[in-house]
Amino acid sequence: MSDPANPRPTLAGVAARAGVSASTASLVFSGAGPVAEATRTRVLEAAAALGYAGPDPTARSLRRGRTGVIGVVTEDRLGDAFRDPINLALLDGLGEELADEGFGLLVLPWAPDSGVDLSAVPMDAAILLGCSADLAHSVEVLQRRRLPLVAIEAPPLAGVVAIDLDNADATRRGAELLRELGHRRVALVTLPLDLGRTRAPLTPAREQEATAFTAMERIRGARAVFPDAGGVSAGGSTVAEGYLAGRALLDVPPADRPTAIVAQSDLLAAGVIRAAEELGIAVPAELSVLGFDGVRLDGITPYALTTLVQPAVEKGRAAGRAVREALAGRTPVPVSFASELRAGTTAAPPPTF
Amino acid sequence: MSDPANPRPTLAGVAARAGVSASTASLVFSGAGPVAEATRTRVLEAAAALGYAGPDPTARSLRRGRTGVIGVVTEDRLGDAFRDPINLALLDGLGEELADEGFGLLVLPWAPDSGVDLSAVPMDAAILLGCSADLAHSVEVLQRRRLPLVAIEAPPLAGVVAIDLDNADATRRGAELLRELGHRRVALVTLPLDLGRTRAPLTPAREQEATAFTAMERIRGARAVFPDAGGVSAGGSTVAEGYLAGRALLDVPPADRPTAIVAQSDLLAAGVIRAAEELGIAVPAELSVLGFDGVRLDGITPYALTTLVQPAVEKGRAAGRAVREALAGRTPVPVSFASELRAGTTAAPPPTF
DNA sequence: ATCCCGGATCGAATCGATTCGATCGAATCG
DNA sequence: CGATTCGATCGAATCGATTCGATCCGGGAT
Question: Any idea where the HTH lacI-type domain is (chains A, B) (predicted)?
Fold first, then answer.
């Protein structure tokens, strides 16, 4: 890589060879300021001759105080973060507003003990994606660095621009639909409650200690309608986890079985449905299933899921825009998005006894 | 953001306040070199008092010549790149070797006219992911920057470490299975042939101009067994695209219909199967379908796909390792992976007339 | 002929750290 | 007791650009 005989050319070298000062050469590459056509050509020729690839991004970043990199902090493993289509939609939105504008997106799978040290990552701003309360410490570090911070569905944090979703209210409306249909025994399948991602029945103690904001908000919404609803927490937002949760809730004597399940993501809902099918429980005749997200399940389940459709791409765009606003020195306004209940074919009145 | 009355603290400021030189303060944060316990404490206290978040990553990068960022260049839109589970598996592998080691992954959705200027992105190395020949120019830019380059399944490029897959040979083995089963009329559903992602029948002209390496290699492998095989190119690796391709190939008079379809990804295969189901064509009795990748389809299709399983996570790990080798000053060895034919339930002898 | 203006260029300061070699005092060794 | 060594600290150079203010020069206005 590093060849002593042939060091990497620098702006200074190019300038020397072109017979101009470094400042003038800089102007040629940055485009700022007037440069005579002849000079410009001479500099570019010198650059070509030396194999100069343009100003060093790192040096430029230091001087300009901008790296062009936006961090996206998630609490999942790298691949898992994008395994749920809802996050892909969000990424699409971010891409439109940031990647297309020349910003690079730096994915930072954060964990309490992971190798990533958020204080040492070169970036201009950070987007916190589905982050739990555990991240609070890291938020402080980032704030000390004076980085603009945008959080997507996080507990309110001072100085962090919030991009929110009506998680509680939307779930409440979904639950109300179920109640109006006549359901009384409803169970929840929640997203992971904390970084441990424990797959286990909900208990007051576990809910007390939960750190995942979105999961708790959605639980809150469901309880507004069904105060006593129990359920289980899944180990992630996947069909497989939904299936496991479904088995746990449905493989019981029919009298104990819920007549409806409120799942906190469409993938979980799809897994629940699969569990029901396997146990010979008809959906929606014997079991209603409510999802969340409104992603295209694209054949993962033959049903049209009754679900709460959230504007995920919009959410991503809003986050991207907020970042750009902040970088432009303006104060971004927090945005709240609303989900819409989409009546599918997986909710119906409970079976009559 | 920038508060004139309260400028962001620097190492120099901390050092001054602690009554030591900047060099000593630097040692405290970098851990290199011996520092007396009392001094260390004093510096850390000063840092805390000033709200210093640690050495500025940009300045550190300039001085050290390392940013800790690895670019991952794809030719897809941000979200699309990760919509195919095969890439997620790859990401998992990359994550293990890079993210877990403290490197950040910078996703760069490259397109000829996109905002991303690869010459201006701060990074230590780049991984080229499923890149077509169109990227050649950008590769030059990156090489001028003397960045270590690792390409996953790309045409051989001088100075670029290749992580390869037996695309042609694997497809050939899959095709041979079909021939042994008795198939003679076989059609292909390929990945996009170029950046245009045109959805259209394969023609010699289009294949001539194709720039997508993997797609062409797999076509080559199929043609080794079925020299006259025609087919269509899809607009992406998705179930929806596979469905469209399937309709195009299958919605014809039975006599013209292929008895087997070689799809270049599992998602495409799943789409083909869906099209077949919809047209009342039984799989595998009336139509055999071969996939590629061996990803968990998790209920996207009820069949166990007959497919070529590629070690995707391993591929990612190898690429990550290659990057680390290169950054350590060693010369990474190119790696070639082999796919394995997995007999599923979607390939059978052709219908007898 | 004088004055002024603006385009082109340059010098020097700066961004915020890291690191090499030098210095200095105290402890160890023969 | 002098020489040596080691640990702790510091000064200065460096990484590679950007940018502000100053300078120089030719041409149009007066």
Answer: 9-64
